[in-house]
Amino acid sequence: MEYTINKLAQLSGVSTRTLRYYDEIDLLKPARVNSSGYRIYGQSEVDRLQQILFYRSLDMKLDTIKGVLANKEFNFETALKQHYQELIKKREQIDQLLLTVEKTLSYQKGEIRMSDTEKFAAFKNEKLAENEEKYGHEIREKYGKETIEASNKKWNNMSEADFKAMTQTEEELFTALKELVSTNDLDSATAKTVYEKHKEWLSYTWPSYSAEVHRGLADMYAADERFAAYYNERGGKNSAELLCQAIKQYAV
Questions:
Q1: Domain spans in the chain, listed from the N-terminal domain onward
Q2: Among 15, 67, 126, 195, which residue carries the largest CB count within 10 Å?
């Protein structure tokens, strides 16, 4: 079956403007353009659009989706299975949040007791799942399964007070990092504060501290654009590089 751009928009819920944009960036080209100048989409384009929307539901950027679909090793069935597993993870996270909301409502009514740890369990599990998805494979290869599992356990058992303290420490880290960006002086007290605050922040989840492992983490930050983007976005340009340099200079 074939569809005009208007019919495909109605079918998929994607606007005609978006479909035209997908055509412009070569993400979803029509099968053909008829004699009247209308874009015509066939079954393969419909399937490709469904795949694009699956990836969009996982918050994947368009240029990344384009790269994935252009890969010669791309397999539609394998991709569907991966989507299925990701959606299962999302459902589990939502179920945990719903359970926390239900328990909190009962707690507010005085019907049940609820520990401070339980109040934050769903949020911590959500963050843990996010980190596992982004970095799980790399950090296990670098630090070993046992170390990471111990770190995850410590994270899950973190008290409300420690969670707040860790968040405050991270804020103080970025305050110092912004100042270091402005001075670019690695021999300054500010640079040492950056290192110390990062070390303190790690202490909330690391089973034990190791200067060697800390330096290795700095190398990982430097090599992975996802880490760099996180620090540069919050601390300013070159924040990630300066953080890595401060760690290497003071983690001895």
A1: 3-70, 81-152, 159-250
A2: 195
